[in-house]
Amino acid sequence: MPNDLPALPIDHVLHPTDFSPASDLAFVHALAIALRARAALTILHIDREAHPAAWNEFPAIRATLERWGLLPQGSPRNAVPKLGIQVEKVAIRDADPVRGILAFLDQNPAQLAVLATHGRDGMPRWLHAAVAEPVARESGIMTLFVGQSARGFVSPDDGSISLAHVLLPADREPPPNAAASVARGLARAFGAHPRFTLLHVGDPEDMPAVRLGPAEEAAWERVVRRGPVVDEILQIAAGLPADLIVMTTRRRSGFLGALRGSTTERVVRHAPCPMLEIPEE
To answer: Fewer C-beta neighbours within 10 Å, C or N terminus of the chain?
Structure first.
């Protein structure tokens, strides 16, 4: 991982974890983004039970950084800040994970939350769409959803980045420029040169104008489809195949308004890759 790339406009990344395998995948994305942004990273566990989480249950920061070749084997704890990040592990006891996460964010503002999501059926842990979506909606911050079966763009083994295709579902309302700007910034920070696909579902005349950026930075294509919004997004994402979906959302406006509530859970649960939600400013 080169360390001379421009920083992302993020100074605090929050990663709530339930210690599941899906949370492990979300963790490596949170860590990689925090490294590139030179941001603080908080790993937060909300404990419903009487016994607090054991410290060794949290993801192993130094072991991960050593595996990625960013720290030598056996590095001391004080070696981590030398990489430009501060990492904190926090355990809070609360019967309601959503309430606990939002209360933490109220006292400790962050610009990005990285959340694992699971299907509900047979799920023994608490981080599923019914937790992730309310946190994203109520917090009002950027949220990266990493699905249980998603193909992540950060390798847990060596920290390498795979951002060849980025999908941006877009409508006139809310305007997609914020999503396009964040997607470009994320790719630039990781030194990636992906193909961006701007997808509009509906009338071609309603395809929004988007500031796409210089051609030498990335390749862009525009796609218009008709059909059920969620189905079209998932089909395009699978066909590219997309490494990341990025979209600006507003609660009840435009075709992306359909992505609130249960349909958002469908996209998050079935997307073949992580999904980054950008709240409209």
So the answer is: C
